[in-house]
Structures are given as C-alpha cells and as structure tokens.
Design brief:
The chain is α/β, with parallel strands linked by helices. It has helices spanning 37-49, 88-96, 105-116, 165-168, 170-174, 180-188, 192-216, 231-245, 265-271; strands spanning 2-7, 11-18, 21-29, 58-63, 66-68, 73-75, 85-87, 100-104, 123-129, 133-139, 142-143, 158-159, 162-163, 220-224, 256-259. Strand 1 and strand 2 (11-18) form a beta hairpin.
Length: 273
Amino acid sequence: MKIGIDIGGTTIGAGLADGGKLIRRTDGPSFPAGANLQDTLTQLYGRISELITPEVSGIGVGVPSVVDPEKGIVYDTQNIPSWKEVHLKEWLEDKFGLPTVVDNDANCYAMGSAARLSLDKGILACITLGTGVGCGIVSDSSLFRGRCCGAGELCCLPYMDGVIEDYTSSKFFSAMGTTAKDLSELASEGDTEAIEAFGRFGKHLAWLTCAVLYSYDPHVIVFGGGIAKAFPFFEKTLRDEIELSFAYPKNLAELKICAITDADTALLGAASL
C-alpha cells in the first residue's frame, strides 16, 4: 500500500491506495495563508500520520509547483508563500522512513487520468483548473516532466492584461465576485448571465487549450480540478473556439476532450509515482 498526497490551494487530500484503488481518504483545509514553513510541514506530517500503517511501503506527494523530481526539492510554490525551496523528499523520508516521491500536482492528476481512461499508448494532456492552472503530460504511460517538472506550465504565458491563469482559474470567477461552484448552480437553473459568463470562460480556456495542442499534439485532453465540474457549461464554447482558432483542423478530427472530476484521481496518481 502507498499513501498519496494532493496539496491544493484550498484543500489537502490524503489517501491510502492499494492495487490502484483508494481504500481510505481524508480531506482538510490547505495551509493558512500566513503559515511559516515549519507550521506547514507540521500540518503535513499530521495528515500523513493519520494514514500510516505497517503495510505502507511509500509516499507520493503532488505539489502545485516546479520540482526537482530526483531530489524531491520544491521551488517557489505560487500559492504557498513560505515554500521557496523545500527539501520535501528528504524531510519526509527522515520523518517516516519510507521512500518518497515528490512531483507536480498536475502531473499526478495526469497519471491518475491516464489510469482512469486505461490509456497505455498515446499522449494525454491534463489541464487542472482550480485555485491555479496546471498541465501534466503523459506519453505512453510515462510522465513527460521536463527538467524541473516545468513541462506544460503554460499558465504563465502572457494573455490580455496579465497571464492566461488569470482567466482560466478561480481568479476569473473571483474577479466577478463569485465562484465557479456558485455560478454553476445558477447556470443549472437557467440563469442567462451565469451561462454567458461560462461562455466567456470557455473562450479563454480555448486559447490555453490551443497552446497545449501546438506544444504537445496530444491524443486526449483531460480537464480536472474543481472548476472542471462545470465542464457542461463551458464545453460548447470551448470546442467552438478551438475549431475557429486552431490552425490545423485535421489534427482535431480524432482528438478526445473530456473532464475527469473524480476526487480520487489526483491521489491515485500521486500514489502511483
């Protein structure tokens, strides 16, 4: 059995996996905004301790940042200010005495998504939509990480008056004084303004999706994360805008685009590292 950890901007998920199945999971709030490094590590230690049993053989951790995958060092985590350079693998192995792998959270979601789709061959790009935006790439069942897990970090590309993440993450909705969850509830009731807002979101997301298509030419694009639960409300404008904007329409003929919002996906991916 292995433990999988998914550190997000609002929640930290932790799960105990056995044979590709999650047999226990816990969810709790992410680190407080002003928490120092030691406080965050103490909180993480507590979450993992809840799942430790004699049968656990390893730990996998997904973090929203670039990572040195060999040394397990986390750098400049966007939504955790105190995580500038964290030797997380070394720290966890010292505390628990178990082999530990640290990777980007979108990479973990991508691995979990590939397993959900039973995709052994081909290229899968997983775009995670939440507090921030990430992208993980799986090619023939193996992660393409780049040198420091930076492959796929297209959320930092300049876009309009900022970067693309400003328009494809929770920031898009908070700028309107709402959340994707609240807006999707309104859209499900037929609220015209909510539906139009998701239409605008879908057009912004299409720009990011085209960037992924130009960069990796995948067979499958998966949307994950909390905002992906609203996929039915922005799917049409997303697809329409991609067909209108993407320069190579034949490449779209067999492209599969879907959302995977199962809460266990990221944890299973982390546990599989």
